[in-house]
Amino acid sequence: MRVRGVLKRSLRVQVSLAGATMLIVVSGILIAFAVFRSFRSNRQVSNLSAQLNATRLSRSIGSHFNDVLSTLRTLSYIVAGEMGSDSSRAGALKALGAPLMQYPLVLHFGMVLEPNACGWRDADFAGRPEFPPSGRFATEAYIGHAGLPEYRPIPSEEFDFSGSYYDVGKKEFFDFVSEPKLVRGANGETLWTLTLSVPIAVHGEYVGVMTCDMLLDIVDMLVAESTRDSMEVDLLSPGGVVVSSSTGGRDRWTPVWETLGDAGFAETDFAGLSDSTIISSHSAERFYVLTAFTVGGSPRLMSVLVSMPLARVTSPAWREAMVFVFTGLVLVVIFVVMTAVAMRYLMRPVDILHKDSLRMASGDMRRGVSREVTRRNDEFGELGRAVDGLANSIRGMVQGMMVAALKLQEVSDHTSEQSRALT
How far, in whole angstroms, is CA 204 from its chain's centroid? Predict the structure, then answer.
């Protein structure tokens, strides 16, 4: 009976050792799989970080969008030459640009509208056959950095018919109210809808208010690195399909199909587009967002062109390294805890075997049990040394990852300094 009890306890030791070995093997497989997934998800973490930064930045721009637009009326006076000499206009531009110093961008806001495609409110056209006018009217404004004033006079031929944005006889400019609101597009994208209300007067007599709804997509608008990398928003009409691009501080206007041809677009790609349809493309240093929609049955196309280095939308290398180090530390803690639990479970049968069998057995049985206990203790000693070696290896790996993270941070800082020196 005593021998059977000893053998039963020895069997428990073997079963416990086998179970602990399986537990350690399974833990190692899980840890290896988690490390492999962390390597694969490194790029995904970078992309997610870039998307979150872009969304956060777009919200910041959107919160100040109305403030920027509110300066257009005063700026229209300036660029149209209604405020004196060139020097006074430049001074006024500097004053307007002062509140915008915190935004490192150049915003070019252009509108090309047709009254027939918009709605009228409180309009009375009795006895006025010239309304709605058949011509096209437009206004443009250029907002730049304080200290770097740039402006473009509005061509007089844009106001060659009676009843445009301002009264031709009195030279009085219009007042408009912008009401930006966040809406959801058909594909789930976040858009801005902007309503312009323009009072119209003919020879000093009020005739009504023209309202136009403009759809703006600013989800992926990013602040440019400098004034040379500009953020541009254009509302395009079928009669004047143009897209603006800024190069070296000078504006040039080219057909939209010619500009987007390099980005992989063709004219047929825009066939059948409806409200809130977004087409985007990444090229070397440009990001295009195109929205096609209809106003009063007429097709309209709005484009957002963002020019900036791609380095601004990538996650810094040291952040990726720290994510990997943190993941590795968590896995190490889990492994150590599981190993400690397994070792505690393994040692318990050996203690019972050592105490009970030596007390009950005598003679040769006691010597045999003592040899068995010694052999088991030697095995556990080897296992303990193996665990210590594994812990030292893990400690060295963690230290190596920390050193690599510091090196990556130094490389990232050096790259940022070179980028700033180039710009």
Answer: 49
